[in-house]
Design a protein that fits this description.
The complex is a heterodimer. Chain A is mainly beta. Helix content of chain A is 0%, strand content 54%. Chain A contains no helices and 11 strands. The chains are: A mainly beta, B mainly beta. The interface between A and B is medium-sized, with 22 and 27 residues.
């Protein structure tokens, strides 16, 4: 049973517009969330994270929002660039931080 | 730092053969993880080690799968005998305690 779900397998966005990637989780014990980005033929790389004590974290063009009551997080990319085209995985963990639960990924395509 | 190193990058084998995947974690990282990526299930954690000791192998699909970490700089994931449904990309990752995981480039396994 998947505890972290990304229900959109793919997303296509025009360059310069906002990309919004969504993620839902079922385990209320999760208190730390991460987003990873993966290019073809490479391993996932860490992008941004958020602790459950916050509801928003920003890093340049990337912002992650957390809605604990809805058990939902989202990644906003503004403005989107063609180089952002990749698969994005969300992950969740408990405070012991050592076992991550990953979603199935969303493939983002940013069109020039 | 060279990052997490995995070998081989690609492996094609026939059903019933033994397959061994190798991983060298980042020096100093005391956690090592093996993941499998499939279209259906995304990134699944198979097993993870702390200080060379297996901590959680609940994700290992069957007895055909085994993993070892004989020392801090080397781990193997073995499948014996391999089956076509084992075809996937296998990732190794390493981390320090309570930090994000760093992934290797993956091994693409094809079992014919």
């Amino acid at each position: 049973d998947q505890q972290v779900k990304q229900n959109s397998p793919s997303l296509s966005v025009q360059e310069g517009r906002i990309s919004i990637l969504n993620c839902d989780y079922t385990n209320s014990m999760f208190d730390y969330f991460l987003w990873y980005k993966k290019y073809p033929a490479e391993g996932p790389t860490f992008l941004i994270s958020i602790s459950s004590i916050k509801d928003k974290n920003e890093d340049g063009r990337f912002t992650v929002f957390l809605n604990k009551s809805a058990k939902h997080l989202s990644l906003h990319i503004v403005p989107s660039q063609p180089g952002d085209s990749a698969v994005y995985f969300c992950a969740a963990t408990r405070s012991n931080f050592n076992k991550f639960y990953f979603g199935s990924g969303t493939k983002l395509n940013v069109k020039p | 730092d060279a990052g997490v190193i995995q070998s081989p990058r690609h492996e094609v084998t026939e059903m019933g053969q033994e397959v061994t995947l190798r991983c060298k974690p980042i020096s100093g990282h005391d956690y090592l993880f093996w993941y499998r990526q499939t279209m259906m299930r995304g990134l699944e954690l198979l097993i993870y080690f702390n200080n060379n000791v297996p901590i959680d192998d609940s994700g290992m699909p069957e007895d055909r799968f085994s993993a070892k970490m004989p020392n801090a700089s080397f781990s193997t994931l073995k499948i014996q005998p391999s089956e076509p449904r084992d075809s996937a990309v296998y990732f190794c990752a390493s981390s320090l305690p309570r930090t994000e995981q760093f992934f290797g480039p993956g091994t693409r396994l094809t079992v014919l």
